[in-house]
Specification:
The chain is an all-alpha fold and 151 residues long. 52% of the residues lie in helices and 3% in strands.
Protein backbone atom coordinates (compact mmCIF):
# COMPACT_ATOMS: atom_id res chain seq x y z
CA UNK A 1 0.00 0.00 0.00
CA UNK A 2 2.69 2.59 0.84
CA UNK A 3 4.47 1.73 -2.44
CA UNK A 4 1.39 2.64 -4.44
CA UNK A 5 1.21 6.11 -2.86
CA UNK A 6 4.75 6.83 -3.99
CA UNK A 7 3.95 5.70 -7.56
CA UNK A 8 0.79 7.83 -7.70
CA UNK A 9 2.46 10.99 -6.38
CA UNK A 10 4.43 11.79 -9.60
CA UNK A 11 1.32 11.15 -11.71
CA UNK A 12 -0.77 13.50 -9.56
CA UNK A 13 1.94 16.15 -9.62
CA UNK A 14 2.18 15.85 -13.41
CA UNK A 15 -1.60 16.24 -13.76
CA UNK A 16 -1.61 19.26 -11.47
CA UNK A 17 1.28 20.88 -13.35
CA UNK A 18 -0.32 20.35 -16.78
CA UNK A 19 -3.65 21.74 -15.60
CA UNK A 20 -1.93 24.86 -14.29
CA UNK A 21 0.31 25.41 -17.33
CA UNK A 22 -2.05 24.32 -20.12
CA UNK A 23 -5.36 25.34 -18.57
CA UNK A 24 -7.39 28.34 -19.53
CA UNK A 25 -6.90 31.60 -17.80
CA UNK A 26 -9.62 32.17 -15.26
CA UNK A 27 -11.87 35.03 -16.27
CA UNK A 28 -13.50 37.39 -13.88
CA UNK A 29 -17.26 37.50 -13.67
CA UNK A 30 -17.24 40.91 -15.32
CA UNK A 31 -15.34 39.55 -18.36
CA UNK A 32 -17.79 36.68 -18.68
CA UNK A 33 -20.73 39.09 -18.54
CA UNK A 34 -19.17 41.28 -21.24
CA UNK A 35 -18.87 38.29 -23.58
CA UNK A 36 -22.44 37.11 -23.15
CA UNK A 37 -25.27 38.46 -25.24
CA UNK A 38 -28.46 39.11 -23.32
CA UNK A 39 -30.68 39.70 -26.33
CA UNK A 40 -33.59 37.31 -26.64
CA UNK A 41 -33.67 35.34 -29.87
CA UNK A 42 -36.50 36.22 -32.21
CA UNK A 43 -39.38 33.78 -32.45
CA UNK A 44 -39.37 32.51 -36.01
CA UNK A 45 -42.96 32.78 -37.20
CA UNK A 46 -42.04 31.33 -40.59
CA UNK A 47 -41.29 27.93 -39.09
CA UNK A 48 -44.48 27.92 -37.06
CA UNK A 49 -46.77 29.76 -39.47
CA UNK A 50 -48.96 26.68 -39.88
CA UNK A 51 -50.29 27.04 -36.35
CA UNK A 52 -51.13 30.75 -36.52
CA UNK A 53 -54.35 31.79 -38.21
CA UNK A 54 -54.58 35.39 -39.40
CA UNK A 55 -58.20 36.02 -38.53
CA UNK A 56 -60.07 38.72 -36.68
CA UNK A 57 -62.03 36.09 -34.76
CA UNK A 58 -60.36 35.43 -31.42
CA UNK A 59 -61.61 31.82 -31.26
CA UNK A 60 -60.04 31.00 -34.61
CA UNK A 61 -56.86 32.92 -33.93
CA UNK A 62 -56.14 31.37 -30.53
CA UNK A 63 -57.73 27.96 -30.99
CA UNK A 64 -56.24 25.80 -28.20
CA UNK A 65 -56.48 22.61 -30.25
CA UNK A 66 -54.67 24.14 -33.22
CA UNK A 67 -52.03 25.73 -31.01
CA UNK A 68 -51.47 22.47 -29.11
CA UNK A 69 -51.00 20.38 -32.24
CA UNK A 70 -48.92 23.13 -33.81
CA UNK A 71 -46.66 23.30 -30.78
CA UNK A 72 -46.27 19.52 -30.77
CA UNK A 73 -45.35 19.55 -34.48
CA UNK A 74 -42.92 22.45 -33.95
CA UNK A 75 -41.27 20.63 -31.04
CA UNK A 76 -40.98 17.40 -33.01
CA UNK A 77 -39.46 19.08 -36.05
CA UNK A 78 -37.01 21.28 -34.19
CA UNK A 79 -36.01 19.04 -31.28
CA UNK A 80 -36.79 15.36 -31.79
CA UNK A 81 -36.46 14.99 -35.55
CA UNK A 82 -32.86 16.17 -35.49
CA UNK A 83 -31.89 13.39 -33.10
CA UNK A 84 -33.76 10.56 -34.77
CA UNK A 85 -31.63 9.18 -37.56
CA UNK A 86 -34.46 7.72 -39.62
CA UNK A 87 -34.24 8.30 -43.33
CA UNK A 88 -37.42 9.21 -45.10
CA UNK A 89 -38.12 7.73 -48.53
CA UNK A 90 -39.92 10.86 -49.60
CA UNK A 91 -39.03 14.48 -50.10
CA UNK A 92 -40.16 16.63 -48.32
CA UNK A 93 -39.90 14.62 -45.12
CA UNK A 94 -43.04 13.21 -43.56
CA UNK A 95 -43.25 15.88 -40.85
CA UNK A 96 -42.78 18.72 -43.34
CA UNK A 97 -45.36 17.15 -45.63
CA UNK A 98 -47.79 16.77 -42.70
CA UNK A 99 -47.34 20.42 -41.84
CA UNK A 100 -48.14 21.40 -45.43
CA UNK A 101 -51.18 19.08 -45.50
CA UNK A 102 -52.55 20.60 -42.28
CA UNK A 103 -52.01 24.07 -43.72
CA UNK A 104 -53.75 23.21 -47.01
CA UNK A 105 -56.59 20.96 -45.83
CA UNK A 106 -57.19 21.86 -42.19
CA UNK A 107 -56.44 19.99 -39.01
CA UNK A 108 -58.74 16.96 -39.26
CA UNK A 109 -58.35 16.13 -42.94
CA UNK A 110 -54.65 17.03 -42.79
CA UNK A 111 -54.12 14.54 -39.96
CA UNK A 112 -55.86 11.75 -41.88
CA UNK A 113 -53.83 12.49 -45.02
CA UNK A 114 -50.66 12.63 -42.91
CA UNK A 115 -51.50 9.19 -41.55
CA UNK A 116 -51.73 7.94 -45.14
CA UNK A 117 -48.29 9.35 -45.91
CA UNK A 118 -46.74 7.94 -42.74
CA UNK A 119 -48.20 4.50 -43.51
CA UNK A 120 -46.48 4.62 -46.91
CA UNK A 121 -43.13 5.69 -45.45
CA UNK A 122 -41.55 2.35 -44.60
CA UNK A 123 -39.37 -0.22 -46.32
CA UNK A 124 -42.23 -2.64 -47.00
CA UNK A 125 -44.27 0.02 -48.81
CA UNK A 126 -41.13 1.05 -50.68
CA UNK A 127 -41.35 -2.15 -52.73
CA UNK A 128 -44.39 -0.64 -54.50
CA UNK A 129 -42.45 2.46 -55.55
CA UNK A 130 -41.31 2.32 -59.15
CA UNK A 131 -37.64 3.20 -59.72
CA UNK A 132 -38.76 5.77 -62.28
CA UNK A 133 -40.58 7.71 -59.54
CA UNK A 134 -37.40 8.23 -57.53
CA UNK A 135 -35.16 11.19 -58.25
CA UNK A 136 -31.74 10.28 -59.64
CA UNK A 137 -29.88 12.77 -57.45
CA UNK A 138 -31.17 11.99 -53.98
CA UNK A 139 -33.05 8.71 -54.67
CA UNK A 140 -36.20 10.02 -53.00
CA UNK A 141 -39.74 10.33 -54.26
CA UNK A 142 -40.75 13.98 -54.50
CA UNK A 143 -44.41 14.55 -53.66
CA UNK A 144 -46.63 17.57 -53.31
CA UNK A 145 -49.97 17.96 -51.62
CA UNK A 146 -51.58 18.12 -55.06
CA UNK A 147 -51.83 14.30 -55.10
CA UNK A 148 -54.70 14.60 -52.58
CA UNK A 149 -56.66 17.29 -54.40
CA UNK A 150 -59.77 16.35 -56.33
CA UNK A 151 -59.25 16.07 -60.04
Amino acid sequence: MPGQRIKLLPVLLLLLWTSIVCGQKPLSDLDLLKRRSFERPEFDRKKSSFMWVSSGNVLLKYNPLSLTFGALMYTYQNVLSKHISATCLYSPSCSQFSRKLITDFGLVKGMFLSADRIMRCNRIAAMDISPSEADEKDHKVHETTAIYKKR
